[in-house]
Amino acid sequence: MNLAASVIEASRVGLTFQTADGPVHALKDVDLTIGQGDFVSFIGPSGCGKTTLLRAIAALETPTAGRLSVNGMTPDAARKARAYGYVFQAPGLYPWRTIAGNISLPLEIMGFQRADRKQRIQRVLDLVDLAGFGGKFPWQLSGGMQQRASIARALAFDADILLMDEPFGALDEIVRDRLNEALLALWAKTGKTIGFVTHSIPEAVYLSTRIVVMSPRPGRITRIIESPLPRERPLDIRDTPEFIALAHEVREGLREGHSYD
């Protein structure tokens, strides 16, 4: 990775939530650099802080310690500069708007002109293989298609960074495999930097250039694993010795994380 082209940098980042039952230490001493064009997956047990870290990058949570920057700016400044798109676990599409209308909404809020909005909507529908579905309503689409529409909405204003919080976690394995393939193809076409939260070891290994393994709370990075796999990855790469060895390394990293007090 070219550190000179880093787009996300975390230095000793900590985040503590104050609750009625006392403080909850969600993140502690997180150090991480994500380079331009990286596909970085965050994996760890439930409650380890991986989603909290992604939300902090997106200025949806505020660290209580350390320093976090996105494109050389604070996360809040990066949000205002529209530096990233964010895809949540659920598609979050408005049922009374068509798919094109849902994709258009952030563009309308940002003040894009009608002709520009129309062009952008068509481009991202093509990117996620939903050309011809812009006039449909969310309830007329399958779960996988709705999630692709959600990705299209995050891509519409052409941010360089795409942050994805378990976007395929609720889908069945066959649909998930198909969307994993589609996401890799989209990444190859756009060259975007992607941060991706997942619970799935095979998904993390299949998609990523680097895998960030996190410990149980307080969330710390126990291991950062560089992938030796080629960027072009057919699904059957999962049967290769290289893939299996990498999955084993991730599994070992997860076990290692449980040694913390």
From TrEMBL:
Keywords: ATP-binding, Nucleotide-binding, Transport. It comes from the Bacteria. Residues 8-237 form the ABC transporter domain. Coiled coil: none annotated. InterPro entries: AAA+_ATPase, ABC_transporter-like_ATP-bd, ABC_transporter-like_CS, ABC_transporter_ATP-bind, P-loop_NTPase. One of its GO terms (molecular function) is ATP binding. Signal peptide: none annotated. PANTHER family: ALIPHATIC SULFONATES IMPORT ATP-BINDING PROTEIN SSUB, TAURINE IMPORT ATP-BINDING PROTEIN-RELATED. Belongs to the ABC transporter superfamily. This is ABC transporter ATP-binding protein. The lineage of its organism: Bacteria, Pseudomonadati, Pseudomonadota, Alphaproteobacteria, Rhodobacterales.
